[in-house]
Structures are given as structure tokens and as C-alpha cells.
From TrEMBL:
Pfam families hit by this protein: Phage_integrase
Organism: Acidithiobacillus ferrivorans
Domain Core-binding (CB): 56-133
Residue ranges of the TM segments: none
UniProt similarity note: Belongs to the 'phage' integrase family.
Name of protein: Integrase
Length: 349
């Protein structure tokens, strides 16, 4: 039957298996509501009597995805993506989301933003449709190939540039940025840092598993600079370490941050690049990649290999392994040390 609530019609009936189906028809037109009622009732009959698979929509998939992935550190980003996708896929059966239809929508996002951003949206769509296969809603997901994107260099600052930037920031942002450079912590871990996560006597902080992107706890050793910054915050707030005018800081990408970059003459630099800077300084100082992985709380070694080129010394120690076979041919004309030096220069270049 149809029921009217306010100006909107609602569908209400009992399926052959006794399940009550009740939902809004999202229309004020009774004829349209009746068509939806009849279609849903027919589908329910076929599902029970003929074993047809329910024709789930993108909306259904999105809701279940959010429910099952409530633990994800990046769920906030997923929600932002889903809001945009909902405008294009609302009410569309997931069986009808073929490659051409999806790529047509992603092309809009690519034109609005970039290939890289469109690929992030594609990754979410792919994950949801793969989950739909596991749920038994789809036989197989469409094949989606990411857009080609230019390889981007790791953006980092020299120590001189970092000092210049810090001197152009207001005190609260300066403290947070300097702490980020000293620890490599992500923005959310700095803004959300609480006093209960610190032990200044041992010079250590810790990030709980539910606060870490990789969902693994991180132990953060604090150097003298980091400890000094923390001590300056004592007494400002009972719970949170970094505050502004007595309130926790929730946003760092502010006008003050952008103006500081402008006055320092630093372009194309995000807050997250402070973490890249920290990692780059570590590598240039000789910190091994596996140690850097543990310090930064990265899930895999691949995440830290993008910094490896900044320190070729770990390759130079093996350079003589090939050149040593030339010793018999060159004799004393080319010493082992000279050969290693030549190859090392080539590796660094």
C-alpha cells in the first residue's frame, strides 16, 4: 500500500517471506509512487520465489561500506569523496556501474582537479565494488585503470629554509611546525596530541593504534628541541598540548600559514611536507631506511624508499664489487681506492 507523510508518498508492503518493506518513494506524485511500489513488490517476489539477487544500488553499497569501515583512519576522506559521488550515482543499481559510466564521471573530477585526485576517487569506487563482490551483490567488478600521473619529487626544505619559515609563523603555528620537523608526526597526531601521551622524563611520546594511519602504535622518541617545545606548552590546557587562545588547534592550513610561506618565499609546500622534510633530513644524516620506517610508523618499506635517493652512501660501499675484477688488467695503474672513488662519484652524480 501507499502512505502519505506530509507531501511525500511512502511505500509499505510485506514481501512473500514475511519481511516488511517500508521506504520513502521520494515523490509527491502518487502515480510515480505506485510505480515504485509495484516494482519493489515484484522484485521482492522474484527474490523469494525465483532466487533472484536483490538489485542493490550505489546508495546501499555506500552505507554498508561506511558501516564496515568505521575503523579506517581515512574514513573522513571517504565520506568527502562519497558526498561528491552521490550526486552522480544516487539510486543507480551497482550492476549498472560499468567501466564507461564510471570513467565518464571520473573524467569530470579529473577536469575539475587533477589526474591524481581522480585516481583517489577511482580507488574508493574500486574498493566498494570489490566489497560488493564479497557481499554477493556483484559477480565481478569492472576493470578500472588509473590515469597516468607525472612522477612528483619529494618536497622538502633545507634547514635554512625551515628556519626562515618558522620565523614567519605566529607562535602557535611555529611551535607545531617545529615539533613536526623534530618528530615527523602527521598533522592530526600533532593537533590531537594529549598530555596523557607524553612522558617527558623518558623523553618519549606515543601514538595509539587508533590514532595512527597504519593502525599500529608508534613510539616517538623526543629530542631536546621537541622536549623544549612541549615544556613551553605546560599550563595552557589540561588535555591538549597545542592550543591557540586556550582552545585546541584543529586547523593548520590557515591564512597565517599561507602568509608565512609567502613571506618566506616558499612555494608549493603543504603542512604534510614538514613530514617529508623530517624524513629527508634523517636520510641525509645517515639514518637507515628500516629505522626510518619504524620512527615514522610507515606500514611498508615501499613508503620510505622514495627518500633513498637522498643518501647514495649506502650504495657506494658496494661499488667496488664489480670494479675489483679490473685489477688484474690495470695492475698498479688503477688502485682499488681510486676505482671505488670514481664509481662512487658516478653513483652520487
Amino acid at each position: 500500500m501507499l502512505r502519505k507523510r506530509g507531501n511525500t508518498w511512502w511505500v509499505d508492503f510485506t514481501s512473500p517471506n514475511g519481511e516488511r518493506i517500508r521506504c520513502s518513494a521520494r515523490t509527491e506524485d502518487k502515480t510515480q509512487a505506485q510505480e515504485l511500489h509495484d516494482r519493489l513488490k515484484a522484485e521482492a517476489w522474484r527474490q523469494v520465489k525465483l532466487g533472484d539477487r536483490p538489485n542493490y544500488t550505489w546508495d546501499d553499497a555506500g552505507v554498508r561500506w561506511l558501516e564496515e569501515k568505521a575503523h579506517k583512519a581515512s574514513l573522513v576522506t571517504d565520506k568527502i569523496f562519497l558526498v561528491w559521488l552521490q550526486d552522480h550515482f544516487r539510486g543507480v543499481p551497482i550492476r549498472d556501474l560499468n567501466r564507461d559510466r564510471i570513467m565518464a564521471i571520473l573524467q569530470i573530477k579529473k577536469q575539475q582537479t587533477s589526474s591524481s585526485t581522480a585516481n583517489h576517487y577511482m580507488a574508493l569506487i574500486r574498493s566498494i565494488l570489490r566489497a560488493a563482490v564479497e557481499w554477493g551483490w556483484l559477480d565481478y567488478p569492472p576493470l578500472l585503470r588509473p590515469y597516468k600521473t607525472p612522477t612528483q619529487r619529494v618536497r622538502w626544505l633545507t634547514p635554512e629554509q625551515a628556519i626562515l619559515l618558522l620565523n614567519e609563523l605566529p607562535q602557535h603555528l611555529r611551535d607545531m611546525a617545529a615539533f613536526s620537523l623534530a618528530t615527523g608526526l602527521r598533522r592530526s597526531n600533532v593537533t590531537g596530541l594529549e598530555w596523557s601521551q607524553l612522558d617527558l622524563s623518558r623523553k618519549v611520546a606515543w601514538i595509539h593504534a587508533d590514532q595512527a594511519k597504519a593502525r599500529k602504535p608508534i613510539t616517538v622518541p623526543l629530542d631536546d628541541v621537541a622536549v623544549s617545545i612541549i615544556r613551553e606548552q605546560i599550563g595552557k590546557h589540561t588535555t591538549f598540548v597545542f592550543t591557540y587562545n586556550g582552545k585546541p588547534v584543529t586547523q593548520v592550513n590557515t591564512k597565517a600559514w599561507k602568509n608565512g610561506l609567502l613571506r618566506a618565499g616558499i612555494e608549493n609546500f603543504r603542512w604534510h611536507d614538514l613530514r617529508h622534510t623530517w624524513a629527508s633530513w634523517h636520510i641525509q644524516a645517515g639514518t637507515p631506511l628500516n629505522t626510518l620506517q619504524d620512527l615514522g610508523g610507515w606500514h611498508s618499506s615501499e613508503m620510505v624508499r622514495k627518500y633513498a635517493h637522498l643518501s647514495p652512501e649506502h650504495l657506494a660501499q658496494y661499488a667496488h664489487h664489480a670494479g675489483q675484477h679490473l685489477q688484474s688488467a690495470y695492475g698498479t695503474k688503477l688502485s682499488q681506492s681510486h676505482l671505488v672513488g670514481v664509481i662512487k662519484d658516478d653513483v652520487i652524480a
